[in-house]
Every structure is written in C-alpha cells, then in structure tokens.
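Final paragraph of the annual report: two paired records, presented back to back.
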Amino acid sequence: MPSPDDANVKGLEGVALPIRGLLSLWGYRIRDHTSVPQIRLDLTNAGLTAVPDFAAGSLDDEVAIVPIAHERDTVADAGDAATEQDPVDDSEEAVGVFPQAAMRVYDLPCAHRVASITPDEPLSAAMGRMAEHGYSQLPVIDTSGTLHGVVTWASIVLMHATGRKTCLASAITSEYEIVNAPAHLLPVLPVIRTHEFVLVRAADGQVSGIVTSADLAGEFGTVARPFFTLGEIERRLRRCLGRVYDEADVQKVHKKKTSVDEMMFGEYIRLLDNEERWDKLGWPLVDRAHFIGLLGRVKDVRNTVMHFNAPSLRAEQLDLLDSFVSMLRQYDPDYGATSMSGST
C-alpha cells in the first residue's frame, strides 16, 4: 500500500480530521497490523503524531496531527474538554482491531536458541544429535561463533550419493538462508517453506537461532489460541449484552456510541458495574463483582495479546480465557446455530 510522500505527510501538521479520514489518506479503510504501524511510522518520520491516539476509539472520532514535541501541550490544552467526554482506557484498542504490531522473527522463541556442532567433531556426532532430538538440520559453528555451514539429512544423503569422503566437512551444505532477527516474519515465510528452515542472525552477527517449518506449526497454535478465544469472548459478550442493553444504556457509558457492538472491554465493565443495569442482564447465579473482576482480567490479557512482541501468555492466563469463554457459552447457547443449520 503506497504511503503519502514526505511533503504531504508533513503538510498534515495542524490538521484535525476523523480517524477514518486519516486512514483514507494512506489508502486504508480499517486499522490492522499493517495500517496502524505504517501510519505511525510515517508520522513519526515527519516529526508528527496524532492526538488522541488514532488506534483507539471510533473511526468517526477526530484526531489532531501535531508535532511530537508539542503532544503534551496539546493534551494539556484539551484537558477541560476531555473531562466532559467519556472516560477511555488508552491502553485498549478498538474492538476487533488487534494486533497493532507486525510479528517479527525475534518474537519466535526458537529465534533465541540453536543447537549446533563444531567443525572438528565427527559426522557421527552430528547424526546422533540430529536423530536424538529429531532435528532435520544442524548448524556447524566453531567456538568463536563463526558459521561454517549446515548439516542436513539431505546433505548427508548427497555426500554418499556423490561418493565423497564420509566426514563432517563433506556433509556440510551452503544451501541455506540467514535472516536478521528483527525482520518481519511474514515475508520470511516463503523462504522457510522453500528451504524448510532459516538461520537467525542476532545484532552481533552471530547465529542466535533457527526457525523451521515445524516451529512455525507449533507457534501458530500458541499464537492463534488466545486470538481465537478472545474473538469468541468478544462475540459472545456482544451477543449477550446486545440482547439486553439498548442505546440509552450504552450512552450512559459513552455518549457517542449507540450499541454494544461499538464498545470496548473497559466500557463493558463500566456498563455492568452498576447494580440496576446488572439486574437487567438476568444472571442471578453470577456474582456481579466476581464477573466484573474476571472481565477486567480478561481485558488485561487482551491488551497483552494485541501486540505480538508481548511475552507469551502464561498457563494461568490461557486457563482464564478458557474458563471465561466456557461461562459465556452457558448464557449464549445458540451461538453459531444459524450457520450450522444453514449448512445442512
């Protein structure tokens, strides 16, 4: 997606426009892992920023493009007006807009560990290590950290097929790719698919890890599980709350919003943290304080998941998401019924 040239971006200084309009200047319609980092980068390169943050709030909310150095002054000048608006949790992105950071190679745990063998070890040691751990390849790295190549099962077969001397040196191949740790992961995927692995180079120039096709398959489960679970939690919450709360209820929490579908997690909490509104929900067996506490913890996990460069979720965080979505399933039993019946 082409970006405006530097002069046009710089020309935005002092402009106030809806978030939707800002996105359209870059040719985007939504905020996602591509649009938000690109716009932020271009604004930063021009010495500018958007106030308030354009990654949060409604697409119709207005932002001002100001010099980065003046951001604090702009926020201070808007202080009185801000007190008249509805409270917003700045750490929370708009519903359905995560993640806001592109995943990089160094976000994979395997990019920070590598098993290797030294050039003076025998081929049998390399083969034994590969067989023991289920490796398909093993980098050859000397004690100074210098990479001499990679031994793979395919290179060992080729050594025998070509009648070369059976030794480690004969089994070393130069058919591999090296990527820098900070590289964006998505462009690297075709390389991994072609070669079945890539070596990862750290800032000091040495090999810090290896990413294989198997690693990606395992990492997909780790990364995808919280995303899918959080997506289901949001959908079920919107369905449960949307059946009960109308525009009048929603606007008691946020004057500019008209339905539950437009709300964020923090606004769900404020919506339910009122005894009269809670009673309308009709969940007599659920303790309001306990539910809101759980919802607050889910919100914190959601904000962590929104950025790929956040630490991996702990087991208790994953368990929290699983138990919370299981609770919601009891109050939203007809979820998916329409699509299921339509497919028969």
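The closing record of the year follows.
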Amino acid sequence: MQNYTLSQIAELLGAELHGDGALEISKIATLANARSGHIAFLANKKYRPQLDNTNASAVILSAADAQYYSGNKLIAANPYNSYAQLAQIMDTTPASAAKGIHVSAVVHPEACIANTASIAANAVIEAGATIGENTQIGANCFVGQNASIGDNTKLWSNVSVYHSVEIGCDCLVQANAIIGSDGFGYANDKGQWIKIPQLGSVIIGDKVEIGAGATIDRGAIDDTIIHSNVIIDNQVHIAHNVEIGSGTAIAGCTVIAGSTTIGRNCQIAGLVGINGHIEICDGVILTGMSMVTKAIKEAGVYSSGLPHSSNKEWRRNIAHLRNLPEMKDRLKALETLTKSLNLENE
C-alpha cells in the first residue's frame, strides 16, 4: 500500500490544506476508528461531536465544519465526494486476474480476445465472443456465444454473461451476477405452460456497475437496456424488456417486472417492487419498500412502505384496517342522516 503526504492528497483532491503537509497518510478510516497515520472525513453534521475525540492524523471536512476541528485538515467543497476520490486513489482491491489467459481457461478459437485482456482460471469464453482491451474476466466466469464486453471492464468471479449480451466499457460486475438469462415468458394452454423462447438480448452501456448476485433477464423480443452510468446494487432483479435511464441508482433486493421503463437520474431504494408495463419518469426517488403499481409521471419523492411500530400498535392498527368497510358504511349512513336532518331544518 502506498502512503501519501497530506500535501499530495490536498493537490490530488483540489482541497485546501491546513496543517502539516509532510504528514504521511497510510489509510482512510472513520472518525470513530481512526488511528495515527489515518485520514478521516466528516460529511454528515450528526457525526460532528466525534471530531473532539478522533485519533485521526487529519480530517477532510467542509469550510462550515472546519471551525470545529483544530488538527490537520483538508477543506473541501464536498467532503463525501473528496472521500470517494481518495478511496479510488488509495484502493487496494486486487486485479481479478493476471495478464493473459490462464492455462485452465477454455477459450474458443473463434473468440476475439484483446492482447491486454485477462482471463482467469476456469473461465469459459465461447465462439464469437469479444473481450476488449484491459478487460478482466474473473475465475469461473462464463461468456456466451457472440457476447461482447468492452474495454476496461471487470467481471469478478462466477459471473455469467449469456449469448449475444453487450456490455460497454469501464463497467464493473460483481461476483455471481447473471446477465442475459431467460425472461419469465410463458403462455398457458389449458393449464399447461408453454415456454416462450426469449429472442432479445441485454444491452448495457458504459460505466455501469452491477452488484453481486444481481440478475438481468434478456428481452422477449426486443432488448433489455441499461443505459450508461447506472449503478445496481446486490440481489436486484431486472426482468425482460426493462429499460433503465442513465444516471439511475437502484439499491439492494429491488425487483422490477417486465417491460417497465425507468427514466434518467432516478434513485430507487432497497426492497422496492415495481410493476410491469409501466413508465417512471426522470428524477423520481422511491423510498425503501415502496410498491409501485402504476406509472409515475412527475419527478419527486414517492413512498408506500410503512415504518415499523411496536407489535401491540401494529396489531391494533391492523384490526382497525380490517374494520374499514364497516366504518365506511357507518360513515355513509351518518352522512345520509345528517343530510336528511339538515333538509328538515330548512
């Protein structure tokens, strides 16, 4: 791991240095757990009290928070973004494969592998597949016939990329993701399910990140499309013919049913369920555990998941909910009676 002086970090981040520029930094840490030689950051004011007791050698913070810390500090316009930049600089994540093709990999002679690409142990690359420059294919990965993976993309171990799938440049796919599996397409003939072959593919743009265990189904006829600069968390399921606009972020365990279109720069929290054959416009934020059953045509924040409560309160509320039809009838009767009394008094 390479150490950096505080002055080097300030220059790399474009931050304002206050303190000892020659101080060496070996690691990024939280305010609570930082030790000597570590740099921490403050991006949320609720953690401001931790500045008093942190053992960090330096802290990245905003101009507004600088007055609360007297030690070595880097003042940044956006401390969280500066932390993200520094994490990239000091990243210790190893490459998923050595340069070249591992002796145990199975690469079809009709596959096209760039000279600078890496194919790790036990990977399988089928006929017609294309692997771009500096792309890393991890151990036990499968890349199907005529699939295409662009330059500088990285697949961790056990990723499956089905036939004819297209993945762009500078993408990152975490372990055990599956891209291009069959969509859930069946017809029913008098109780017997008839499988509908999924004839489309999956098209993924540039700078897309896909989390561990995520599944993206191929289209039934047209393609499933993930535009550039989309980030998808672990265990997300994206069904056939979904289209996701650029800049959208989707958190863990969200499920998107088939033929739904999601706009640009949306933020979808964890455990959200989105119905099929609907459209969600640009700039929509869905909070955790929301259930979306119809189109959303205006940008904004939408919620439907209920916050937790004590078991006693929850049971009482459910009992009231079950009585809603009776309460509605009683309310209607009262309205009718009130209207009748008002007429008599006129």
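The chain has a mean pLDDT of 96. This concludes the annual technical report; the extension proposal builds directly on these records.
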